[in-house]
Amino acid sequence: MSTTQSERLRELLEPLVTSQGLDLEEIAVDSVGRKRVLRVVVDSDTGADLDAIADVSRALSAKLDETDAMGDAAYDLEVGTPGAERPLTEHRHFVRAIDRLVKFQLTEGGDLVARILTVDEDGLDVEVPGVKGRKATTRRLGFPEIAKARVQVEFSRKDSKKDMKEEEEA
């Protein structure tokens, strides 16, 4: 997809996505066999439920039908959310990932897996899990120190505040 087409699609679709209370995270046009697929990724601070995705999908479909932004060739429109292991590239992504476990690739080399505690304009405070019985430690990361960051999936996370409350009630 040319940069020009990508920019045109973003200019066309972003106001519709924003009017639905969502952020337009990504637009991609891929060829699948003889068809093209327009993938639109949306999100918000509170997440995007199925109803919100269906509403924005209908609005985008109607707008694309009334314009020639995708040309005359057939295409499928797919609207979804970023997924569980989303990359964090914007300030708002880090804010939305507060209390989530994230794998950071640091600009000076090396990786760090830590939980985001707070986020401000300059960077974030993270909690680095302790190993071999040691306590967790906190660390400050400035945004320039972060080369890449991706949310990690946790299957059996123990929510310490919730667990402590349940133990007190028992």
What would you say this structure looks like, in words?
- The strands form 2 sheets. Strands 7-6-5-4-8 form a 5-stranded antiparallel beta sheet. Strands 1-2-3 form a 3-stranded mixed beta sheet, covered by helices on one side.
- The chain has helices spanning 3-19, 50-65, 91-96, 160-169, and strands at 23-32, 35-43, 75-80, 101-106, 111-119, 123-128, 137-142, 146-151.
- The model is unreliable at 160-168 (pLDDT under 50).
- The chain contains 4 helices and 8 strands.
- 29% of the residues lie in helices and 34% in strands.
- Helix 1 (3-19) packs across helix 2.
- It is an alpha+beta fold and 170 residues long.
- The protein is elongated and about 60 Å long.
Order of helices and strands: HEEHEHEEEEEH
Shape: elongated
- Measured by DSSP, the beta-strand proportion falls in 25-35%
Largest sheet: 5 strands, antiparallel
Structural class from helices and strands? alpha+beta
The count of DSSP E runs of length 2 or more, i.e. the number of strands, is 8
Stretches where pLDDT is under 50 for at least 5 consecutive residues are: 160-168
End-to-end Cα distance: 58 Å
Strand order of the biggest β-sheet? 7-6-5-4-8
Please bin the fraction of helical residues. 25-40%
Give the overall pLDDT as a whole number: 86
Q: Count of helical segments?
A: 4
As a whole number of angstroms, the C-alpha radius of gyration is 20 Å
